[in-house]
């Protein structure tokens, strides 16, 4: 039976400013963390670079947005390193060409993020940078020309570097006010051009990344690190809730969403201890954020989570009221893979950046160690919808793979088509089971810089970009086979996935 999607279902793709735009120091843009972050690979981390207090250059393993540099050091761009995000794929200058290609695929939605540092270069400037405001206005107008609905992430791993360097980043409560001012500025500026907003990309990663530190940096996170992360997350929750309230004040038609890194957790064995550990992993890594942002309050199990890590949250007067008042209208998430949870010793660990834990013998893994699991997407959709009962959006999904340009100049990416076909089918099944799913934006609709590894070779796009890991290439855009496949899927509203 052919898949059935709702009539007004939104089909499209997604990118993030720092991974696509480049033009890192043009038109008054300030620096962000990825501008001082080198490229890495599957097996070696990206590094955040700095000059220490004695003037010596140094680097520290980073996750793009979480590199912690030594006391007294200053983030710095070093001469003998390559920074892939500086140029990225030059969306900043080529957005008209790119949006035209998206329109050709039939997009009705395009997810992108607004770079805070283009609007407020230092994060807390008195007045916004007009050139930054103009750029996004022009991008949104270009979308509207083709009846493409922009879906805008307000923050996608790119806090202005000044706020990281001189304020301690999200550990500092002041960031709530700076973020709120940024959000209000763009809500006012783009009224009538944008309807859908996401407050923080993969907000659960603020804490979940700590579980993964042992993989990228060979370091088990300490209670102090959890204390810092939970406090930062609290500030982000309040900032998100304030932004939601501001948005509704400015335009009651605005639709706001949370954005969660959606990893489906399964128990590795039927040992009851594993079943419970899995449920607790859902609470810690997924529900904690969704519950605060959709239901408007910290869940009861939060006390246990804080106690396990000796965390004492500084919650100030008005914060809990803000959380209650600033709940989101929709739950949006990225979905790439599932993971296994176990209390037993694991011999066969899955490698690759960010994915970890035991190998699932029923699944296949990408070159970067991510488990391909479309059933896990159906499971996630059904479980999350049952819990929250608000419209859902899959705002990232895709396969990072190395592409080979054929002799005919085209990438024949059946592997990517298969991946998306399976996930589109899984969404259709969840919809058939009653889930109110309203949008699907595939990740990196055009090839962009990988967030995790900084590589270009880890490609997700349906449009090939001629650019390599060293920054060599013409930046020319060429549709892959998947481009034509997706066009057909959209034209048939998800019915024809062959
Ligand atoms: P890359 C880890 C696990 C799941 C999603 O990731 C993740 C990450 C962080 O890398 O992030 C999202 O480029 C993120 C995007 C990112 C995309 O997944 O490492 O929102 O910015 O590019 C894919 O392969």
Short précis:
By secondary structure, the chain is α/β, with parallel strands linked by helices. The protein contains 15 helices and 15 strands. Bound molecules: 2-(hydroxymethyl)phenyl 6-O-phosphono-beta-D-glucopyranoside.
The unique ligands bound to this protein are: 2-(hydroxymethyl)phenyl 6-O-phosphono-beta-D-glucopyranoside
Q: How far apart are the termini?
A: 13 Å
What would you call the structural class? alpha/beta
Taken as a percent bin, the fraction of beta residues is 15-25%
Number of strands: 15
In the residues, how many domains can be counted?
A: 1
CATH-defined architecture = Alpha-Beta Barrel
Helix share bin: 25-40%
What's the story with the biggest beta sheet? 8 strands, parallel, barrel
The CATH topology turns out to be TIM Barrel
Low-pLDDT stretches are none
